[in-house]
Amino acid sequence: MDRQHIREGQIVERYLQGKLSAAEEQAFEEAYLGDPELLAELEAAERLRDGLKDFHEVEHGARPPLRPRWLELAGSPRYGIAASVVAAAALVASGMLFVQSRGLESSVTAPLAAASSMRLLPLVSVRGAGDANVIGAPAADEWAVLLLDPGFADYDRYRAVLVRVDGAAEQEILRLDGMTPTYEHQLALGLPGRVLAPGAYEVRLAGGRRDWPAGRALDELGRTPLTVTPRP
Amino acid sequence: MASRGRISPSVIAGGSRAVVEGENKLELEIAADLVARIRAGSRDAEEAMIRRYGAGLLYLLKRRARDPELALDLRQDTFRVALEKLRSSPLEEPGRLAAYLRGVALNLLIAQRRKDTRRATTADSDAIETVADERGGPFDNVSREQVRGAIGTLLEELGTPRDREILTRLYIDDDDKDAICAALGVDSVHFNRVLFRAKQRFRELLERAERRAKLRLVG
User: Fold this and answer.
1) Which of A14, A20, A46, A55 to mutate to test the interface with B (most CBs of B within 10 A)?
2) Which residues contact A202 (CB under 8 A, 6 or more apart)?
3) What residues does A98 pair with on adjacent strands?
4) Interacting residues of B176 by C-beta distance below 8 A, sequence separation 6+
5) Which residue out of B180, B216, B217 would a mutagenesis test of the A interface target, given it has the greatest number of A Cβ atoms within 10 Å?
6) Could you tell me the CA-to-CA distances from A162 to A225, A227, A229 in Å, in that order?
7) What angle do CA B215, A159, A82 make, to 5 degrees?
8) How many beta carbons lie within 10 A of that of residue B70, not counting itself?
9) Does ipTM surpass 0.85 in this model?
10) Count of A-B CB contacts under 8 Å
11) Sheet of A187-192: strands edge to edge?
12) Which of B156, B169, B200, B204 to mutate to test the interface with A (most CBs of A within 10 A)?
């Protein structure tokens, strides 16, 4: 049973559904016994299947969406220490690339070294879980790094725009062009903590390719909500 | 039930080494080579067999037995039975070592279910150590919440409602590919592409979550 047959025949999915014939089932089981890559693919498909069912239940109101555990982890000092070197590099790069920052000139030009601490804040785009990205307001002398997952589309440069959306009119807080994935293939958007006052925000992400014609607009990739609550 | 001892984690966890070792060989050649070397008394070959087939056997037994503890015991017994056989007599089809191991495992499971006294095994091996091993699959450290987050990210990235519907119909409704393609007006190539990329992306997200889970467990 070769890979092409397994893929085109949806052997993995049919195995999980219990729809293979006895002969197919035996051949597939013999194939994955000695093939760690195929076994990992099978286990991932099983998690996807179980996860979709679970997610479907949550989305339809059976249970409220839970805050991802890794989001809590990401705010922990341990996680921050582990990633801080990479994030710091991303922050410095971000500072150099700001092309627009309304009312924040002094903030973004402030030396990074003046920051008392740094927080990594992975943002999650989760349908049906609108409160997934709720964070406490950073301290004024703290820096925040918003980690955005660009997905698996075929882009090599990105633009992120942080917009405050809870006022009478939307307010663009900052815009960062020319981003490329860094830490764990995510986009790092660094900003001074005092920029993130309590309120409702969106991070709007767009993607493009360097070999596109100069006038071509970037593709809009999505909007990720972010709620900043007052500091306790 | 035989010993509650476990195969050493260090032996089973080395599965990737077995892949590297044999990346340019066919499964038949690798299996035949292992069988011949075990027959000749090679303890290295015994360990290599356990590394190569241990994770797959555990998955198979968990799926069939629906009892992780029983699956671990049966895997242990499978290797004991197999080593006893391979040391003493040749396999009829040495290239089909996976088929042989699968047969032994399922026979042991059937015997267990029939409440028969399972075969008393006497084979001892340096390759089988009585060290507790609860190792499971590659994503066992990923929590339910993390999976849910990964699913949400994946669905968001799929782009079109139609592509999301493909996954929903396939994995939740258990529809067949042909029925899904007909209902959604997509061809087989598009279906395969969406499914392949979705699974690939989901694995990336799971692996990232797994790394974070391990990071959390350190210190």
Assistant:
1) A55
2) A162, A163, A165, A223, A224, A225, A226
3) A176
4) A19
5) B216
6) 10, 12, 16
7) 15
8) 17
9) no
10) 174
11) A117-122, A142-148, A187-192
12) B156
Bridge partner list, A161? A175, A204
| B196-209 per-position pLDDT tens digit | 888 888 888 888 87
Let me know: does B180 contact B169? Beta carbons within 8 Å: yes
Whether residue A126 and residue B16 make contact (CB cut-off 8 A), yes or no, is no
Average pLDDT, integer, range A167-176: 84
Residue of A13, A32, A78 lying closest to B56 (CB–CB): A32
Q: Which residues pair with A224 in a beta bridge?
A: A203
- Cα dihedral B18→B24→B28→B33 (10° resolution): -60
Alpha-carbon distance B69 to nearest alpha carbon in chain A (angstroms): 19
Task: Tell which residue, A143, A231, A155, A222, has the closest CA to residue A188.
Answer: A143
Residue located via tokens 């006893």 = B84
Q: Which residue of B has its CA nearest to A126?
A: B152
For chain B, give the number of residues.
219
The residue assigned the tokens 């990071």 is B215
| Residue of A17, A29, A50 with shortest CB distance to B174 | A17
Indicate the pairing of strand A142-148 with strand A117-122.
Answer: parallel
CA distance A171 to A187: 22
What mean pLDDT, rounded, does chain A reach? 73
Amino acid residing at A150: P
| DSSP letters spanning B155-172 | HHHT-SHHHHHHHIIIII
Does the predicted TM-score (pTM) go above 0.90? no
CB contact under 8 A, A70 and B148: no
DSSP state for residue A185 in the 8-state scheme: G
| B192: closest chain A residue by CA | A8
